[in-house]
Design goal:
The chain has ten helices and eight strands. With 386 residues, the protein is α+β, with helices and mostly antiparallel strands. Helix 4 packs antiparallel against helix 5 and helix 6 runs antiparallel to helix 7.
Length: 386
């Protein structure tokens, strides 16, 4: 089991990343979003300090640590008000999948760039009709000689405009059963037949969302990542880190909102004393803090299990962590806005934009209802209704 108390190294990592994040802060982040730009300066500095690739193997330029350390990086940047969403996608999902299942050539080609931030990769699984249900995905890959031909559509793919390639989840026919099984393919941004359309979102985020179309995209044999027959094993090697990192993202956001609310409640006086002295203000903030701390414990457990190679245990814990963190984040943001009253909806305090962002953690990459399905079926052994 993971230690309840973090190691000195982890505390030092938190402190260093927190210091970096505060030098940029929420103002930098909101200005970047308003300009329609990307947080390139922060991304490059974090890369130069080794934070982006902290989870990737040392042999390929990474830090040799794990998802535990990468999740701490994301949480602390979020707590400073400037989370980097592409940390979830590029090093956590794509980097992990390539490190675990890629060929030696794929590792040499991609991991050093993902680690130093000079290359970025997106991840495409969600589809217009299937959502993220890997059993209903319609993006298919068929063999034509030694090549693969991919056809299909993906939606809500983050950061495609930044990405050198997108790791696409497609389905291939199993020669033994004839059934379709998920497989992962590296699709370069310039591949013929691979097009993107930006999706307009009512969400303040530097990372844009895209719909992708794959129209008979021809890929060489080495575009396949991992074993063609491994199927769901390889897919969930990327999805479990995604859930853990999303939990860290949500916890960081919740901590940022809570910190702003606590600072306001200490200073704002309407009567003879600060409003934080009143239990109607203080108690909900205390509850928000407790729930964020509890979500953090489950997130660390999930990361520890994943880094220890316990994929089954990590799957259960990662889902629970993502659920707990999303709920804690939404409540923390809501209470923070409520504590500030009208000020909570102003640009000056930077909380109103988090209302929409916090809800994303409940929806993506998997909805809270599907997590409850997972826990009720896998953990509690209850029958399925679908």
């Amino acid at each position: 089991m993971p230690p309840v108390i973090e190691t000195d190294d982890h505390k030092a990592l938190r402190a260093a990343v927190g210091a970096l994040g505060r030098r940029y802060g929420r103002e930098y982040f909101t200005r970047t979003v308003a300009e329609g730009a990307h947080p390139t300066a922060l991304w490059k500095e974090a890369a130069g300090l080794g934070y982006l690739g902290v989870n990737l193997p040392e042999a390929y330029g990474g830090g040799g640590a794990g998802i535990t350390e990468l999740s701490l990086v994301l949480e602390e940047l979020g707590t400073a008000g400037c989370p980097l969403l592409m940390l979830i996608v590029s090093p956590a999902i794509c980097g992990t999948v390539i490190a675990r299942f890629g060929t030696e050539e794929q590792k040499r080609d991609w991991l050093p760039g993902l680690a130093d931030g000079s290359r970025v990769m997106a991840f495409g699984i969600t589809e217009p009709d299937a959502g993220s249900n890997s059993h209903r995905l319609t993006t298919t890959a068929r063999r034509e000689g030694t090549d693969w031909i991919l056809t299909g559509r993906k939606v809500f793919v983050s950061g495609v405009d930044l990405a050198d390639a997108t790791l696409i989840v497609g389905r291939t026919a199993d020669a033994r059963t004839g059934r379709l099984k998920p497989c992962l393919f590296l699709v370069p941004r310039e591949a013929e037949g691979f097009t993107r359309r930006r999706i307009d979102m009512e969400l303040s985020a530097a990372e844009k969302q895209f719909e992708l179309t794959l129209d008979e995209v021809r890929l060489p044999a080495d575009a396949l990542v991992g074993d063609e027959d491994a199927g769901l094993l390889q897919l969930f090697a990327g999805l479990n880190p995604e859930r853990i990192m999303t939990a860290a993202f949500a916890i960081g956001m919740g901590r940022y909102a809570l910190d702003r609310a606590v600072a306001y409640a200490r200073e704002r006086s309407v009567w003879q004393q600060p409003i934080g002295a009143h239990q109607a203000i203080a108690h909900p903030l205390a509850v928000a803090h407790i729930e964020l701390e509890l979500a953090g414990l489950m997130t660390r457990k999930a990361a520890h299990l994943y880094d220890a190679g316990d994929d089954a245990g990590a799957g259960e814990a990662a889902n629970m962590a993502k659920y707990a963190a999303a709920e804690a984040c939404v409540k923390a943001v809501d209470q923070a806005v409520h504590t500030l009253g009208g000020n909570g909806l102003t640009s000056e305090f930077g909380l109103a934009s988090l209302v929409n962002a916090a809800r994303v953690a409940r929806i993506a990459p998997v909805s809270r209802e599907m997590i409850l399905n997972y826990v009720s079926h896998r953990t509690l052994g209850l029958p399925k209704s679908y």
